Structures
1.
Amino acid sequence: MNKHLENIPKLPGVYIMRDGIGNIIYIGKAKSLKDRISSYFNADSESKSTAIITSMRKIDYILCASEREALIIERQLINKVQPYFNAMWKDDKSYPYIKFSLQEDFPRLTLTRKKLKDGAEYFGPYPQIFYIKKLVRWLVKLFKIRPCKLDFSEDKLPEEKKVKSCIYVHTDMCYGPCLGKISSADYKNKIKDIELFLNGKFKKLADEWETQMSELSSQLKYEQAQEIRDRLYALQNMSERVMISEITQNDINKSVERADSINELKQVLHLKHMPAVIEGFDNSNIQGTNAVASMVRFTNGIADKKNYRRFKIKTVTGADDFASMHEVVFRRYSGIIRKNEKLPDLILIDGGKGQLSAAAGALEELQVLTPVISLAKKNEEIFFPQKDKPLVLSKHSAALKLLQSVRDESHRFAVSYHRKLREKEFLNDK
């Protein structure tokens, strides 16, 4: 992580923290960007910083002329984006904590929404429960913490017949305290580093594990040394996954606009899921010659060119847009199903009811349930399968602009492929 931090300037600015799929989760300002961002990875990080680190994957920053300008930009962006963590620290009553039950002989990690004075350590609260659940599962696996809810002590173990078939013990995913396989003192010693992790003291933890691994190796305790090595690798992955880059305020505005367009699209189309991945199709031919089709993919509102596809029409003779669309859509998603790849969240067809019906027919044959719509260029009408009346959005609609971008790009890509084939055919005829 240090090599990334070295390039951050000691200047006023605004920093933007994102999760694994690019969502902005926290926005802050700083008199010195380098000092402030570095503090999140400092051994003395507070629980607030640790909460962010568990969800964060990327940091962007905007350089400002002064701390006052940074404050103004920070407020503008927070009001516009309303990130999870900024909202949480206004009212954190309903968010879950990670509970580390140190008062028990064999402590556990659990999630709770109540912070009690019961001798346990509490970390959080955290707004992104999806990530925190994953984190707890990861820590349980990494440290071999008992995942069960059994209430027992070192002096009063559960009946053997109730626990002897536990899969976690038999697969070496738990130290087996319920069967008396480990003492309370040894168990607590093996999991004591969890506190360092949850307090954000990653560097101290890494240094300790490096020392432990060397000592165990020198004592020829290779199996235990390998266990510490695996923890080190996992910890390095936790810290190295964060990328840092400088952006402009215009970049942030564009990012916010893309998010707005995706949110609006979900609402106006009444979709069950956010249309983060959209695939668009178009056909191209002149008098039935060199019939081709294109498929483009947009991810989070951005053209994902490495996942574009081109198709030569194989089963259709002459200029038949409907049959060509059916062929291409069928070929695309039969391939997706065969390779067990992820389907898009929305499919967009360039055209009207005819092209849409052809595409919908192909999807129905394949039993693909992904929503499909078409966008007709003349009046920018959005058509739906099984509905006669199209949807017409305002020309200023962010959702419409996103659909237009996908439609226009699929058209451009199809025409460029068709032109390329015609030029190749012309050269061969000479």
Note: The chain has three domains: 2-89, 97-200, 257-429.
2.
Amino acid sequence: MQSTRPLKVLAPALTPFHADLSVNRPAFIAFCRWLVAQGAGLAVFGTNSEANSLSLPEKIELLEALVDAGIPASAMVPGTGLCSVPETVALTRRAVELGCAGALVLPPFYFKPATDDGLFAHYAQVIEAVGSERLKLYLYHIPQFTGVPISCTLIERLLKAYPGTVAGIKDSSGDWANTERMLREFPGFEVFPASEALLEKALPLGAAGCISATANVQPGAIAQALQAWGTPGFEALQAQLKGVRSLFQAHPMIPALKHVVARAFGDEGWRHVRPPFVPADAAWAEGLCAQLTQAGFRMERP
């Protein structure tokens, strides 16, 4: 069943670095402004933001800088999940204070095995410590990175305990059966697949849109496809989106995205990544750019 909510695309915005790997704040602000102008929301400090290579002070400073620059907090659902409750609370609380639309919260991912009871206790402590009716918490399910799955049993328990606060989930598992189950079992819960390639299957079941790595490079095209959902033009737009997504997925995603942004924006500084990543290798990166051009991909410059 299709959702009556406005469909949204959110970009886990790439984080640009200087040559010394300090954050390039002006470039970050400019990039986020461009994403919003293209019709995307901002899931800053997501996986493709290299979030777990950023410190808590860096994240708070960048979030405040975006708001100070006039980028609407209502367009932001920052990633605020860290392994410790105090740090997760600090970043989530600041996001709420700034007026962000929500907070995307990873489970604590170091100590394993993590039981549903333990994960419930973690999320409950975060919600109660933030202590705000304005908090909209989005769970972040990416077990291939965290090793900590968010089960449907846990979702059901959190929804019963914190209705109106636990608002949705990003499902980055890559397991369509899991995404489909969430969509069917929790109507009204905002489920975001992690790829625009799944929109044709997810939207009829009520998906809220998508939070996608490749929204960094085709935000306008994804926004256009969401607007076209239910019209004859959607199928062609979806096919184009899937083609571009598949080309990026054949390579290390973050270095690939940054290489393409560097080419499109004419700024080689965008190729910088923090370890353990290394910059895109020219041997495959230039081949990727050629394939994208052949596929009709063009990235709008700011």
Note: The mean pLDDT is 96.
3.
Amino acid sequence: MFHFAKITGDKKAMYEQLLEQTEHLLAGESDWLANLSNAAALLWMQLPDINWAGFYLWREQQLILGPFQGKPACIRIPLGKGVCGSAARDRQTYLVPNVHEFPGHIACDAASCSEIVVPIMDGERLIGVLDIDSPTMGRFDEIDRDYLEAFIEVLHKHIDWSKMA
């Protein structure tokens, strides 16, 4: 069993350790539900200054709440609505320093002030999005974007998306 100590250091060093921990945590398992559940828990445990971390999955032509850590959340998000729906529609990462200024923002937790959403693609197929919220304005930057996109690549190595119901 890998020891998951709280990681420290500058942001890049922290993310490097997070990616290493993710590799160890998911090694030998390919089930999407188990791996997304552990991935959400790891993000929640290791990322400083966040109040929600989890996944929305593309089903029934909308995003539906998946594994997460944090307060209860919105269950269904239409494509193109809010930050998650916009990132899914555009298939690109959205880094929002102030969610209160984002047109159509869906406020599941009034304490959230900034957000980053990374789409999860399997080739051309939309799987869903990784969504992370913070109670701090401007919490996320390009370093977060780069490393959370790399985090999604680690998930791809360990999840058999074809078995996702």
Note: The mean pLDDT is 93.
